[in-house]
Each structure stands twice: as structure tokens, then as C-alpha cells.
Amino acid sequence: MNFPDRIETDRLLLRPFTLADVDDVFAYARDPEWSRFLRLLPRPYLRVHAEQFVARQLLADRSARPTWAVVVDEAVVGGIGLRADAPQRRAELGYSIARDQWGRGLCTEGARAVVEAAFIANPELLRIHARADADNGASQRVMTKIGMVKEGVFRLGRVERGEAFDEAWYAILRRDWEG
User: Fold this and answer.
1) I need a surface site. Which of 40, 83, 99, 159 has the fewest CB within 10 A?
2) d(CA 51, CA 38)
3) Is residue 25 part of a domain?
4) What is the CATH number for 16?
5) Do the beta carbons of residue 96 and residue 47 sit within 8 Å?
6) 3-state DSSP call for residue 71?
7) Is 168 within the bounds of a domain?
8) For the segment 40-69, what is each residue's pLDDT rounded down to a tens digit?
9) Residue 48 structural domain
10) pTM for this prediction
């Protein structure tokens, strides 16, 4: 699949991560409240983890796993990514934003722009889905605001670090996005 490298919205620049982003990533990702629902992240989150994260983004195949750094006022304050499954004509959306940016609608603005860019650039794409811890109401509100519909709750459907939890699944279909 094809995805744009850069996406601009009224308040955001979405662009590929660079090595220069490590300090910004470390600044927000070391906050335990930010990562409360991201159970696979190392705890404590060290600078080396930010370096590894950025390195993985640089090495990723952007046709299958594009990720955009969310830039506000020249600082990286989060990330938005897709995992494309070309044979199934679908993609999974993921996003995060620094805690000091919560409540400003930035995640919604960026996620909406990525969904739009993905559908425009890939006419064969049928659906984009996302999932969140069923207790993460803020993430579910983002999904709803960008036009996703709740498809259900996968009860005890995910185990991370030995802990089982419920996941809420949402999706937007191309036909709904076009409508």
C-alpha cells in the first residue's frame, strides 16, 4: 500500500520519525500515566527505549507499517501508525499523544487525517480498525469522533505481561467514510 510521508492539519504536522526525535519521545514516553494502557512498554521507560523505538520506525517498511511523528510547535508530542494488511484490504490504526497535550483534540485531529490519507491513497482499502483497552475511555472517544463504529468487546481477549484484559474494537469502512 502507499501512504504519504507528510500530512498537515490545521495544528499538526505528521511526518516520519527522525533520529533527532529521541529526546522528545523520551520526554513523553517516560511518563507512567501516558503509558498506563500500553502494557508492553518497558517500565521504567529509559532513554535507550526511546532510541530503540525511533530506530524501529526508521527501519520499518512504510508500505506496510507507516508511522508518523505528531509535531506541534516543532516538538514531537506523539505518534500515529498503521499496520496495513494488503491481502485483506484493511489496516489497523494506533496512536498516542503526550499527557500534557491530552484534552486538546490533537489525537482526534491526527487520527482523522491519517484515516483520510490512507483511504485516499489506497482505493483498494476497505476498512481501518483500531482497538483499545476497554477501560481506556479517552481512546474510545477518539475512535468515535473520527467516525469509527464500535464492533464489540473482545472479553479477556488480550494478555500482556501476564495480565488479561478486555479490548474494545472499532472500525470505519470505506463506504461509511465516503458517505
Assistant:
1) 40
2) 18
3) yes
4) 3.40.630.30
5) no
6) strand
7) no
8) 889 899 999 999 999 999 999 999 999 999
9) 7-130
10) 0.96
